[in-house]
Structures are given as structure tokens and as C-alpha cells.
Amino acid sequence: MKATTTPSTSTPVAHNALPPPSATSTARSSRIAPHSHIKGLGLTAEGIAAPDGAGFIGQTNAREACGVVVDLIKSRKFSGRALLLVGAPGTGKTALALAVSHELGAKVPFCPMVGSEVYSTEVKKTEVLAEAFRRAIGLRIKETKEVYEGEVTELTPTESENPLSGYGKTVSHVIVGLKTVKGTKQLRLDPTIYEAILKEKIVVGDVIYVEANTGAVKRVGRSDAYASSYDLESETYVPLPKGDVHKRKELVQDVTLGDLDAANARPQGGQDIMSVMGSLMKSGRTEVTDKLRREVNKVVKGYVDQGVAEVVPGVVFIDEVHMLDIECFTYLNALLESAMAPTVILATNRGNALVRGTTDVVSPHGIPVDLLDRCLIVKTDGYKPEQIAKVVQLRANIEGLKLGSGVLERIAEEGERGSMRYALQLLSPASILAGLAGRSQIEVEDIAEMNELFLDAKTSASNIGADGGFDGGRMS
């Protein structure tokens, strides 16, 4: 947020006063997330990490290691394994996982979750994990359909007397003329297809296609022969289809196994009042049985064997994995060994910690040793002051903020003393103070005032007295 209103010199404005809304306050703006600047791993063709690439600053070893994992995933040689990202808070573990998803592309399913999500009052812990794994396995279904495609040249409904009564007429059939670059064809269609044509608001000059098997009608757009010279058009113009009117078309549909499980698990109740009331009384989430999943897997395997579908293993990202308990870790081992298992990326900031759900099992990163043995472990490093300065400048550019002289160095010092997250959090509030003071850029005094208003984690911890209470006197 950046204010542009200059306060009046006659009336003093407190530092927490809101400026009046500007004329541009109604402009539409998109939300900027903490990792909006991450676009990928920023690797060269040889797999070498550039010091500054794709939104990443530093972390060259971790990025190169994740680049190797991306190559393994693309070559289908990493399924059923796990990658563990370890490091201090604010060193880019979540950013690395998101960068891996960017490198794999939008077609590969990526299912992020936090370790605490498994604790639900509606479903079991293991069910939440199993559901996340199923949503991370994609199924690309290729289907060849016979369609009639072309520009509508004629749309003539033929009416006949209604046989059920002596009043009115009904549509007995409809004549549709379709034209392509190669030729024309006249179709005699069922009246139910005419209803679909009316629902799609199809008129002469539109480009449509009709599925031969189901009779489904789809309007593609307006033929570009009817395009006008207006600067603003509400219509989508498409070129005249090539080839014959009657053709075979290959359609590709992407779903996940989780979608198939949910579609088959949802009960199809009757239309009586008891069925409707029962569906209203049921909980929002239902557990999917292992028997149903086995049946879905059997059907999917049949599609794959016929060459109709292709399985696309995706990625499950579990952040704060130390929040899982011993039961979840045991189930996670079983899921990793299953025939249909995605790639698993785990992240934690713990050192030696007690495994949740036990009283005496202390393990590195709070993860049992048997699961650690299955993981490739990548360590993230802390940031140097010059790297913090680069990250701050990058975030300022993303948020559209201007920094005055000396501000970058001052924020980098704060990041080294406290944490990089604290340094980044100072940017937006400091821009508000600068706007209230009538400046278009952040100055050093804005950062100094931010330090008076807010505390970083280390300063707050140092104010805790020896008895564990808060020592308010040390604030001054």
C-alpha cells in the first residue's frame, strides 16, 4: 500500500492517521503473496545456479540439488522417494518447493499442505495424508471423438403438428448447414439438439462443433469473416475450420486420482424427501474407503493398458513435517512404498527434536530415522547482508515501492540483526509512513520509526526476564 496524499501543514497528522482516499483508490490491484517473485530455480542449461535468477537470491547449492531432483521427476525416476529440505526459518525452504513446481510446469499436479492439516475432527489423520497423495497423481485421458465442425450457414427448424393435442406445433427436426475450408455439409438433427443450440445462443455465422455420439453442441466463437473494424469487441472471432465437416478429433482431459475418488465416493441419493434430508444432515467431508480406491486403481490401470490414459505422478509438499506424529510417519512410509506414489517434498526447521506422539524418541529434525533413510536431504543456508539487500530490493520492485539512499543498507542491517522476514515486513508499513509524510519513497527515518513501533523476534526474546515473565522496563 502506498499513500500519495500530502497532509496539510496547518494540521499536524499523527503517525497512525489514515490519509483520505485518493482518486486512484478504486484501481484494481492483485494481492502480492510472500513468494510472488519466485518464478523457478534459476538454473542454466548445464544445471548451474546463477547468483540471481528467476527471483532467487543465493542458495546456489540447494537450488542445484533441487534441479537434479526436477530432472529425476521428469524422467520418472523419483516416484516413491522423498526430498527433505532442512534449514533455519526464513531461508527459502517453501520457496524451493514452489520453484520445483514451477519447473515441472502447470500440467504436473502439485499438492501443498502443512503438517498440522492432518488433525481434523471430520476425518482420520491417515485419510488426510492419503487424500493429499491421491490429489498429487494426475491422469491424462486421451479420447478420440467423431465431431461435425464448421461455420453455421443454415439453421432451419422444421415444425409439425403436435400428435398429443390439436393445439400448437412442435419441432420435428432441425436442418443445420456447416461449412469448412474444404467443403459444406447439411445435417438433419434431433429436436433435443435444437434445444441445445438455442441454449448456446447459436446463430448463422457462428463456428460450432457437434459430437456425433452424444449430440453435445459447443459454440467455439464467431467466424472471422464477420469481424468488424470496432476497437472494442465483445465477441470472440475464430478462423474457418480446416478439413472436412465430419472429422475425428482428439480431446485431452487432465484429472487426478483424488477427483476420481471423490466423484465415486459421493452417494447418489434418490429424489424422495428422506434422501434429500439425509444428504443435508451429512458432514461436508466423507472418507474414501480403501476398497473404493482399489476399484478406481483397477479402472485406471485398464485405461493405461488400453493406451487411453497416462499416469502423471505429481508432487506432495508437506511443510512443517515435524508436526506429524508417529502414526502419520508410519503411514507415510507405507504410502511411499505403494505402486502409485508421487514425489514427496518435506520441509522442517527443527534440529534434534522429540518425535510427536512419543515420549522418549528423539530424532534429527523430529522425523523417525527409518523415514530419514528414505530421504535425499538438502540444507538451506542463511543469507549474507548483501544477499538480504538484494532480496529487499527485489521485493520492493514487486510491491512497487521506492527506496531512498541508505535505506537498503539499513534494512539489510536489520535483517542481519533480526531476520530477513522481519526486514521484509518493514517495507510496507514504512511506505505508509513515507506517504503520510508526503514523500513518494521510503527514507532511513521511516525505518528508524518502524523500529520504535515494532520489535523483531530476537529483541522481544531478550525482554523476557529470568523468571520467564516479561520485563517491560527493558523496552526503553
From TrEMBL:
Subcellular location(s) of the protein: Nucleus
Keyword Nucleus on entry: yes
UniProt keywords, alphabetically: Activator, ATP-binding, Chromatin regulator, DNA damage, DNA repair, Helicase, Hydrolase, Nucleotide-binding, Nucleus, Transcription, Transcription regulation
Biased composition (Low complexity): 1-12
GO cellular component, one term: nucleus
Any GO BP annotation: chromatin organization
GO molecular function: ATP binding; ATP hydrolysis activity; DNA helicase activity
Keyword Transcription regulation included in the entry's annotation: yes
Segments forming domain AAA+ ATPase: 79-369
EC number: 3.6.4.12
Region entry Disordered, spans: 1-31
Primary subcellular site in the record, as a coarse category: nucleus
Coiled coil location: none
Highest taxon of the lineage: Eukaryota
Reaction catalysed by this enzyme: ATP + H2O = ADP + phosphate + H(+)
One Pfam family in the UniProt entry: TIP49_C
Family named by the database record: Belongs to the RuvB family.
Function: DNA helicase which participates in several chromatin remodeling complexes, including the SWR1 and the INO80 complexes. The SWR1 complex mediates the ATP-dependent exchange of histone H2A for the H2A variant HZT1 leading to transcriptional regulation of selected genes by chromatin remodeling. The INO80 complex remodels chromatin by shifting nucleosomes and is involved in DNA repair. Also involved in pre-rRNA processing.
Protein name, as recorded: RuvB-like helicase
Species lineage: Eukaryota, Fungi, Dikarya, Basidiomycota, Agaricomycotina
